[in-house]
Specification:
Elements (H helix, E strand, L loop, with lengths): L1 H7 L9 E3 L7 H12 L7 E3 L7 H11 L13 E9 L8 H26 L8 H13 L6 H6 L1 E7 L22 E6 L11 E6 L6 E10 L15 E9 L3 E9 L7 E9 L11 H11 L8 H20 L5 E5 L7 H7 L22
Parallel strand pairs: 1-2, 3-6, 4-11
Antiparallel strand pairs: 3-7, 4-5, 5-6, 7-8, 8-9, 9-10
The chain binds 6-O-phosphono-beta-D-glucopyranose (BG6).
């Protein structure tokens, strides 16, 4: 009710701007109600719904990579891309935020906003111009293209988990302000798709979790396999598809993996990396996401803030899943020991596609430490 009180004391003049942190509603209905309340006090151009992932340099750089280069966009579609992985995991628990987290869970805390926002940057059409209206129109369009999940898909393509005790950490249920019988998920892995010409049939696998082996946020684009494996009868290994890794954090950068002939007899094709790191751009450190966004708000630039229709479009996609979980209390909630990569069932959602998660190694210092590629 804060906006109504602000109105009462006259703090809603035309020059006022208000930054609203998540959670923006807990489902579609509550988000709509909140939007109405805000709209009764402020104009949409005064409301800055903040999602700090959009303030990250590396998230914005997805737009530069796609739309400031000629070579990526022609292959950025279902003809060349096999599947996309988006991972945002942390090696921390809920850090004294039990009260909040119990009402949220990983789906509301990370997926409905941050991760779907990253997916939008990967999946959106190029805006005609980079300004608030054009950019946010495209975000809404791509959210609206999210293929609604059927109940069968909610069962099969969405895995939720909750961390149990690790070597030196307590279980989620033993955290402060957490119900000892809590069914709140601290891990979600799911498959989503976009119902449009560009992405039809391309799965986007999204995953987030607390108490994982490391903290990393990255997007991995898997290109289709080569059509003909000419070298398969020769000695050595034969990687068959290209991978583009967009490392949002840490060790911010971009890695392209491709096959090259190792020196020597025969044709031993090795997967090698072409690597760009932000550090190589020079002295400028990667800035703080919140600082960037607050500055944008002060400047009156809402481009990187979420518009009311986008919030609703995202909730429209996720609310049926939340309702499904509420209604069906027997939907599995898998335990996973803190410090592991989450429930093995999360691998299952990729099997149908013949894929598996890319688990970055614990110490992300250079590209060679990526395992399981
Ligand atoms: C916040 C979530 O929005 O994002 C936290 O509420 C999460 O649970 C955090 O830890 C992750 O942000 P970052 O920038 O540290 O990856």
């Amino acid at each position: 009710m804060i906006p109504l009180h602000l109105k009462e004391v006259g703090l809603n003049g035309e020059h006022t701007r208000i930054i609203v942190e998540k959670p923006f509603g807990t489902d579609l209905e509550s988000a709509r109600r909140l939007n109405e309340i805000y709209a009764s006090v402020f104009g949409e151009n005064q409301i800055y719904r903040i999602d700090h992932f959009l303030g990250k340099e590396t998230a914005q750089n997805i737009l530069a990579l796609r739309f400031a280069n000629e070579i990526f966009e022609p292959v950025w579609n279902r003809n060349y891309i096999d599947y996309v992985e988006i991972t945002a995991v942390e090696n921390l628990g809920i850090e004294n935020r039990g009260g909040y987290y119990e009402t949220s869970g990983a789906l509301r805390d990370m997926v409905q906003n941050h991760l779907i926002q990253l997916a939008a940057l990967i999946a959106m059409e190029p805006p005609t111009r980079f300004d608030a209206d054009h950019f946010r129109n495209e975000v809404v369009k791509v959210y609206e293209a999210l293929t609604p999940l059927t109940e069968k898909e909610m069962e099969k393509d969405v895995i939720r988990g909750q961390y149990t005790a690790g070597a030196d950490t307590v279980a989620y249920r033993a955290e402060k302000n957490v119900d000892p019988q809590s069914k709140t998920e601290t891990f979600v892995a799911m498959r989503v798709g976009f119902d449009n010409w560009r992405w039809s049939g391309v799965p986007f696998y999204i995953r987030t979790g607390k108490q994982m082996p490391t903290k990393v946020t990255e997007v991995v684009i898997h290109f289709k396999k080569i059509p003909h494996r000419m070298f398969r009868y020769t000695r050595g290994s034969h990687p068959v598809h290209n991978i583009l890794i967009l490392r949002i954090q840490p060790n911010e950068g971009i890695v392209l993996r491709f096959g090259m002939k190792a020196p020597g007899p025969g044709f031993d094709i090795k997967q090698v990396s072409m690597d760009f790191t932000y550090q190589s751009l020079g002295q400028q450190a990667v800035g703080d996401a919140y600082a960037r966004l607050i500055e944008d708000c002060i400047q009156g630039d809402p481009t990187l803030f979420t518009r009311s229709d986008a919030v609703e479009a995202s909730w429209k996609f996720f609310t049926p899943l939340l309702h499904y979980w509420e209604k069906n209390t027997n939907v599995p909630l898998y335990g996973y020991p803190a410090g592991t990569w989450g429930p093995p069932a999360s691998e299952g959602i990729m099997h149908e596609h013949g894929a598996k998660w890319t688990n970055p190694c614990k110490n992300l210092t250079n590209t060679d430490q990526y395992c399981e590629l």
